C-alpha cells in the first residue's frame, strides 16, 4: 500500500509538575496505529489493520472458515469501520441470499449483515457497546464451490470523539461531493 502524503500535528504540553499531571488532566498521546495484515486465525490488537485472504493479493480457493478477532481494549472506541478495498466471493443466489461464500461479523451488539458477491470501495460501520470487547469477522468458503475468492478489508477502530464516527446503528454513510 502506497502513502502519497502524511500530515503530522505535534502538540507538546508542559505542566511543570511532571507528565502524570498532564496525562491525568486529559492530554495523552498514543502510538498504537498498526497497519499490518491479519488472516485466518489471527487477532488484530492495534487500532488499524487489514483482514486479507491467505496469499493476498492472489486468489484463494481453500474451503472452510477464515476467522479473525479484533480486540477493542480502549474505552474511547465507539465504532469499527470496515472498508472493503477488494472483495470477491460467490454471487448471491436468485433470491439475493448468500449461500456459497459469505462474510459476516458479530459482537455483543449483534450480527452484521451477511455479505457476498463483488464489493469494492464500500464501507460499513459497526457499533462497539462495551469495552473491553471484541469483534469477530468470518469468511465462510463453501467446499462445493471451486471458484476463487479474494478479500482485503481495512479495519479501523474509531474513537467516540472522532469526526469519523456516525450515529448508532448506521451501517453506511454516503456523502455527495
Automatic annotation (TrEMBL):
It comes from the Eukaryota. Gene3D superfamilies: Spermadhesin, CUB domain. InterPro entries: CUB_dom, Sperma_CUB_dom_sf. Transmembrane segments: none annotated. Residues 1-20 form the signal peptide. Keywords: Disulfide bond, Signal. Residues 40-158 form the CUB domain. The keyword Signal applies. PANTHER family: CUB DOMAIN-CONTAINING PROTEIN (PTHR33236:SF5), INTRAFLAGELLAR TRANSPORT PROTEIN 122 FAMILY PROTEIN-RELATED (PTHR33236). This is CUB domain-containing protein.
